[in-house]
Write a structure and sequence with these properties.
The structure is a homotetramer. Chain A has 13 helices and 9 strands. By secondary structure, chain A is an alpha/beta fold. The C terminus of chain A is likely disordered. Chains in contact: A-B, A-C, A-D, B-C, B-D, C-D. At the A-B interface, strand 9, helix 9, helix 10, helix 11 and helix 12 of A face strand 9, helix 9, helix 10, helix 11 and helix 12 of B. Chains A, B, C, D: It comes from Paraburkholderia phytofirmans OLGA172.
């Protein structure tokens, strides 16, 4: 299949690579010449604009940081709508707000195209391994149509419902994730202050009603889970600033839907505080630093690799 | 073994019954003549006071609503310390604050006894089935000593560390539980308002990073998990007022330890609001009623059986 | 002076009327023919579009519900920029986010105009009486230029700093207001539950360190302040949905500035809950209904006049 | 009048001094020989125990850190009840929980005495100057009886209602205070981040609906109010740990009364975080340090004099 791929960041580049490996012909566009060249070396064809990337393709995939970028890539003079043929489906794997998805879908209909939201979980690790989960919003027909393409990049291709529900699923899951992580951080810190061994406490929670991914897989207390970012200085993983972005989308969506999100709004403030104090690039489980007494973490809260190199969510 | 058992409530009565079934001789005391008679009918010996219940026994077990009751049962003129022989161990399975545990343990030492905290999880279902989890705080010797007795009433007998750490484990687990339940309630309500099918959303969360007991076993949105209290009108389960009590213990312990518990303190307010508005006896997953738009739950928030008849925590 | 006035809602209409009373010639535009006619009856000249309203004027004033309306009024084909002469100043008295202000100001510069943000406080009462406070963001020159025009509609014309700072002042003040009102509601409800007379408690707070406008002027407990909306069933005043809008702007601005706003985000959830449960049109002091036990307020939370007819903020 | 005074801390010592100045004969007791000697030098008579201090007096005044101290001073073998004559009134000016007040009042009745709660506001400055406010809980008769004695130490002697309502008034006022201070800190920090001058913003808030003592008298942003602790490095004033104690009392009272206190519980966490991070002795307005970006406050959050030397609340 001939595919136009726009947005070759930490996630987009390995995704496009997997499309090439699966035998697809891929036109790529990104503002960074360096990442474009890496894909060209792997067999992609470089395009000078989104418009150029989507001319004559059978499918368009976008993977961009925020709704504003998607809007620009779609509607600019040299954008997707300027070059795309009628009937071609646009798959947007960016994580953006559901209201923007609906607006883009209407624009697509006006141009004779279909717009499907398909945000992912699985991080850069899943992107490289081709084991991402895609949460797809669109009609049953559209889902069936995009499933084969997405299968080259992911393991689970889940149909969430109509247009926008892919984003809703992603946002709601990460809302729970942001809350549970901060909740586990509170409980583990409280337990530490009250004198229980962290491994014992983790073990009890993980076999009881408090069990959750944030405790049994990504426990924020160093040493409880050997493979968690907390045990390697909160490096790698899912960056605090990315969690902050997703909680921002969740609270925005809640405002749009006129729904209260008490714990979500508070969790957002906790990650914002981490970011404001300079720890935005640490794994989001570093939120536990807000709770532990000074000197107990052996870190200054400012180191850590780029949080984007994550393997969570 | 000859055991004195004090406190025959919804949890204590089936626990004492299991001791009888295991062949122990059990002296029982409770303020309610009715529950005492039920145990006597099953083979227990009624005692007229805590003092009378513990004379000549090899082990004392208390299962009471709050620290004030434990204090009174221990120290009253006709209390445990007035009748207990030196060297006998007192096992308190009540859920109380760790600071009180330490005070009771010191009193016990002064009387030549050992005090072990052993709060439970598993609810009245686990108490009846003998499948409770006991979280034991005390020395390694004390743990080895009480393990056989507790095994007649529970399946998992976990040694948490020194005196008080059993309570710390219970409190910290339920802190996570109270937060995750409210967090899942927010996310499921937000998803509903944004138009995603609740079963689809539940399915995604339960296989992703948001997965937790509050979502995959006790999901607060009716219909997502067939066996959850939400699907039977929030009856049975773990009562809102009991969760409120445990979050009260958690925030008290945090105050004592001078630790912040942002989400825990906020979750406490949410369950308090439920209780203040008359829903204290519903299962704690009914907290989702705070989020869903009126008319969507088909309930007035005031029905439901006694929340004490729970099978969670 | 010849002025174009766009947006004749509950606030805009009386403001335009005061301009007429001061002797200005006013072109008016609004989507509602009815409100336009009322102004025409008072001496204004009706315009068929924003473009038509601003042709040949010396000053343009906009008073609109949200940033999206301002954007449309400015940039539509028959919008302000299509008709305005170079050098004319646009005064926007809408309450919108500071980032949009800066975007509009840049557009204005491109068209050879100056854009000044001048949101108001004082409510519909102040608008009618011509006693509004205007918080002006713009250069010192621009401030001096708009001051005489604004003086026809308000009593205090405050220069807040550069473009956008008028909105910052408005948003930050209302952030404090939303928090203090909910805080006073908590304290008055707690005092009531603990048995102190509400008037006595109000009196103590109002002469002590807890004193604030939300207590000494707008106390949410009925009967404490005779002239407060709480004493007349939470009618009139400043509507819950308007406070919710302003807290939405504050939390959006905080997200933009990467600043935590813990209490603001939580207060937003409280007003959102009121709105979700159907009380959005009551005065925002009705937030106390979330705290008082059922049956103590004699209201069902759904009555009340349109919150827009307010005299606060 | 002959008075027994127990508790000569930062508040108690100057209060006892003012009784001496007013011509009363005062027996004093404190665990610190040094503070007792200072009072003896001023004309007081030292007592070796609370019992000794209250023998033959016409009135007893206690000023102690917490309810546990009051309980001990009243009920110990050499305590107040062991020495006091029937009919003598006990005035407790400590800040403690209303439930303890009621328990102490019942004990007093059993001994033939009257117990009046009379917590103060005005800080050490007001204690020295004799300008404290006393919030008195007790019968109208008891109020009339204690008023002359309290007038030697304070300016406003307010009758709040029955026993315990003095504490309720104090706690509810400080609940509002703790919330408004953190709210003002959020708004001033947000304004700073958004580029408005802090003095301008403070001026607008202080003449608008956001005005409150925490902004117009004790503004947490340095330089806005010249006489505020923020302008002198957060020294002096009302210590963070004291505010934390009072919010602890408020949330405890709310738990007792089964009332939600959303903002109060969250504010408690903010001051707890300050204390946990080492800033407990700074004035409570230092809570703004949680919000401002690093490097903007020129402080490390750990300096500052003893927060007890306060002039607020």
């Amino acid at each position: 299949m001939k595919i136009g791929f726009i947005g070759l960041g930490n996630m987009g580049a390995p995704m496009a690579l997997n499309l090439l490996k699966a035998g697809h012909a891929v036109n790529v566009f990104d503002l960074s010449a360096q990442v474009v060249q890496a894909l060209v070396d792997a067999g992609a064809k470089a395009a000078g604009s989104p418009k150029a990337a989507v001319t004559d393709v059978e499918c368009v995939i976008t993977m961009l940081p925020a709704a504003a970028h998607v809007r620009s890539v779609l509607s600019a003079d040299d954008g997707v709508f300027a070059g795309i043929a009628k009937g071609v489906t646009i798959i947007d794997s960016s994580t953006i707000d559901p209201a923007s998805v609906k607006a883009f879908a209407e624009l697509a209909v006006q141009h004779g195209n279909t717009f499907v939201d398909a945000p992912v979980s699985g991080g850069t690790g899943g992107a490289a391994a081709g084991t991402l989960t895609f949460m797809v919003g669109g009609s049953a027909d559209a889902y069936e149509q995009v499933k084969p393409v997405l299968s080259a990049m992911g393991k689970n291709i889940v149909h969430c419902g109509d247009t926008g529900t892919g984003q809703v699923a992603k946002i709601c899951n990460n809302l729970v994730l942001g809350i549970t992580m901060a909740g586990v951080a509170e409980a583990m810190s409280l337990g530490e202050a009250l004198g229980i061994d962290s491994k014992v406490l983790g073990g009890i929670i993980n076999t009881s009603t408090g069990r959750c991914w944030s405790s049994d897989t990504y426990n924020p207390m160093p040493g409880v889970i050997e493979t968690a970012p907390s045990t390697r200085g909160y490096t790698g993983g899912f960056g605090t600033d990315l969690m902050l972005k997703d909680l921002g989308l969740a609270t925005d969506a809640a405002k749009f839907a006129r729904q209260p999100v008490y714990l979500g709004a508070l969790a957002q403030q906790l990650y914002q505080t981490m970011s404001t104090k300079g720890a935005g690039r640490l794994d989001f489980s570093a939120v536990i630093k807000l709770y532990r007494k000074d000197g107990k973490d052996g870190k200054d809260g400012k180191d850590g690799k780029d949080g984007k190199d994550g393997d969570a969510s």
